[in-house]
Structures are given as C-alpha cells and as structure tokens.
C-alpha cells in the first residue's frame, strides 16, 4: 500500500512543479530574450527620409498649416477599452481595426492638400496589436512628393503584457512626420530616463523627431514631433521636459523658428484637467506643465473648447459620451518668433482613436 502512495505523491508533486514551472520559465525566457534584444538607440541619431520632397522653403513669410494626431495605432477607437487604463482589451478585433484604420486614413486624406506638415504618434510598422499592418507605408501612399520620416520609439520582439491574457506580442511603432518641404537635417533625439529593469525592456524608448528646414534668410524652421511618457509617476516626464527645454532654448538662441507638436501626456499650464468632465473626479487626475516652465514669449497653443484625449477604462460606444473621462494633452509649443493664426481641435467623438486631431495655422515673424 505504501509503495503505491509514494509514487502517487511523487507524480502529484512533479505535476504541480511542472504546472508552476512552465509559466515561470515563460516569464524568465521572455525577460531574457527581451533584455538581449532590447532596443537601445543612441542619444542623437541622424535619420534619412523614406520619401523625399524636391520643394524648398522659398520665403521667410509663408503661412503654414500643421496637423497633429496620435492615431493610437488604429486600435483604440470608440469600440475599444485598454487594459493599461483599467479596461480589458489588448487589441481590437479585426473588424474594428479595419474601421479605425479607414477612419484615420480618410481623415488625413481629406485634409492632406491643405497641410504643410503632418505630425503623428503611435504609428505601427510591424505589430501584433495592429495585425502586422505597416501603417506608415499605408499612409505614405497619399504623400507622394512629400518628405516622409518614421522614428521608432517602441520596439519589442515579444511584449508579454498582460500576463493573464493573450499578450501584446511583437511591437514596432513610433513617430511619423510628413512634410511638403525638404529638410536640410533630420535627427531623432532620445529622451533621458526610463522605467527600472525589467519593466524598461517592455516600455517605450521615448524620443522627439526634429526636422530642420532651411529658410532663404539662412535661419531654420524646426518642426518637432514628440510623445512624452505615460503611466509614470511624473519623474520621467520631468526629465524629458527639462531635456527638451534645453534643446529648444539653444535652438531659439541661434535665431531659429520652432514649432513642437506633441502628445505631452500632460495638460497645458493652468488648464483644469477636468474641464470636459464638468467637475473633479476622485478616480482620475492629470498633471499640468508648470506655468513658468518656458520663458516669457513662448506660447502653449491649444483649442480649449474640445478634448483631445479620452481614458480607456471603458468602451465609449457602450457608455454615455459625457460619462467618459476626457482631457486635453495634445497641443503645440511655439517660439516667440512664431505668430499663431489659428488652432482647432476636430471633434471626431474619438471614433477612430483615443486622441483627436489638432490643426495649427501659423506664420513666421520678422
């Protein structure tokens, strides 16, 4: 009898060990592979455009139009929530993905002819979450004759999050900038700081993308596309903002014109984050950029009448629109020698993305 019990116990222990060991081995393997293949770009990286424009800036007095939009990899539209925000979705179903992609593509195509610069964030190239669709290449079809640039800020061979569901998997994503004019220089600048290991392996490598366009006067127009950290305690954003500030002030002191279009993941100075919620809510808050962050004359440019971002703790289409947390974190920063003519956020009710497009019209001062 005893002889039968001991082997049975051994088999149970072996089975239990196997049951616990396989998930542990998976986690260890994913972290090991992720660490070995971790994307580690240099602080400064020259970027060659994938498409080139033959057109140069012909005057220092032109009026320009820019479009800023975080397209949310066409995965976070009105029929989606997201696990990082307290929802459930990891990626949209194929039909919703096609719907979001079509919405994003058609909107940009509609306004392309009236734009000079298009600054996009979360543009996937080869990611499981967007069904391995090269969104940058797909959007590029409409930008024949334009300069086109993509800068990676998220590259994982395999992202295991969330651990309890089918994970995000392979991710290759970043910033995409399209310009009607040719740049004289294009550079990707890595922001300092990151999360601690091993979380850092699976989070974004934040950056900003700088296009320098030569003016007839010899000065330059800097068009900057940026995406600051989310899901941090504020320390990463602070490091990134200080780094960007130093860069901007130096470029301005050299006599250049500067426009930054960004998903800042912060509200503008003094803007009440709860403006579009009616009142404060204990379950949600958003930080503001400090009022005195930039010197006098620099302008934070935004449309205070419309939200640019919604939180993804619930599916928008299944809940009252007014009950969804909405705020304003996508906007522009311009140097004192830029004259802003207009800024407008297009209210699309977050149909295709968790962000809304922001249009800027500006000219250069003497």
In short:
Helix content is 21%, strand content 27%. By secondary structure, it is of the alpha+beta class.
SSE layout and pairing:
Layout: H1 2-36, E1 44-46, E2 63-70, H2 94-111, E3 117-124, H3 135-140, E4 147-159, E5 169-179, E6 185-190, E7 207-214, E8 220-227, H4 235-253, E9 257-263, E10 299-301, E11 309-310, E12 326-327, E13 330-334, E14 338-345, E15 358-364
Parallel strand pairs: 2-3, 8-9
Antiparallel strand pairs: 1-6, 2-15, 3-5, 4-5, 6-7, 7-8, 9-13, 10-13, 11-12, 14-15
What does this structure look like?
With 366 residues, the protein is of the alpha+beta class. The protein folds into two domains: 1-36; 44-364, Endonuclease/exonuclease/phosphatase (Deoxyribonuclease I, Chain A, 4-Layer Sandwich), CATH 3.60.10.10. Helices cover 21% and strands 27% of the residues. It has helices at 2-36, 94-111, 135-140, 235-253, and strands at residues 44-46, 63-70, 117-124, 147-159, 169-179, 185-190, 207-214, 220-227, 257-263, 299-301, 309-310, 326-327, 330-334, 338-345, 358-364. The strands form three sheets. A seven-stranded mixed β-sheet has the order 1-6-7-8-9-13-10, with helices on one face. It has a six-stranded mixed β-sheet with strand order 4-5-3-2-15-14. It is globular and about 90 Å long. The chain starts with a helix and ends with a strand. The model has no long low-confidence stretch (mean pLDDT 93).
């Amino acid at each position: 009898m005893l002889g039968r019990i001991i082997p049975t116990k051994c088999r149970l222990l072996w089975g239990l060990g196997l049951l616990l060991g396989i998930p542990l081995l998976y986690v260890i393997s994913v972290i090991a592979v992720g660490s070995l293949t971790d994307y580690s770009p240099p602080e400064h990286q020259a970027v060659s455009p994938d498409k080139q424009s033959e057109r140069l800036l012909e005057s220092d007095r032109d009026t320009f139009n820019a479009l800023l939009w975080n397209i949310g990899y066409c995965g976070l539209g009105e029929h989606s929530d997201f696990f990082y925000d307290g929802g459930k979705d990891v990626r949209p179903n194929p039909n919703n993905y096609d719907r979001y992609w079509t919405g994003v593509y058609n909107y940009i195509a509609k306004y392309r002819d009236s734009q000079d610069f298009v600054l996009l964030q979360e543009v996937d190239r080869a990611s499981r979450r967007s069904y391995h669709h090269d969104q940058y290449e797909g959007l590029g079809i409409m930008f024949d004759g334009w300069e086109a640039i993509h800068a990676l800020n998220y590259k994982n061979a395999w992202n295991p999050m969330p651990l309890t569901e089918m994970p995000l998997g392979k991710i290759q994503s970043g910033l995409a900038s399209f310009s009607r004019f040719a740049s004289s220089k294009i550079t990707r600048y890595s922001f300092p700081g990151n999360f601690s290991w091993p979380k850092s392996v699976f989070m974004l490598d934040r950056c900003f993308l700088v296009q320098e366009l030569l003016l007839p006067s010899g000065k330059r127009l800097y068009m900057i596309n940026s995406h600051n950290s989310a899901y941090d305690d504020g320390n990463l954003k602070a490091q990134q903002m200080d780094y960007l500030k130093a860069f901007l002030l130096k470029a301005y002191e050299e006599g250049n014109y500067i426009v930054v279009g960004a998903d800042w993941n912060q509200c503008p100075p003094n803007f009440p984050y709860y403006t579009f919620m009616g009142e404060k809510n204990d379950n949600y808050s958003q930080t503001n950029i400090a009022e005195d962050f930039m010197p006098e004359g620099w302008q934070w440019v935004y449309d205070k009448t419309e939200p640019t971002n919604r939180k993804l703790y619930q599916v928008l289409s299944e809940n009252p629109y007014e009950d969804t947390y909405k705020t304003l974190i996508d906007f522009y920063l311009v140097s004192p020698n830029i004259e802003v003519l207009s800024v407008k956020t297009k209210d699309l009710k977050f149909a295709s993305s968790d962000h809304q497009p922001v249009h800027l019209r500006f000219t250069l001062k003497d």
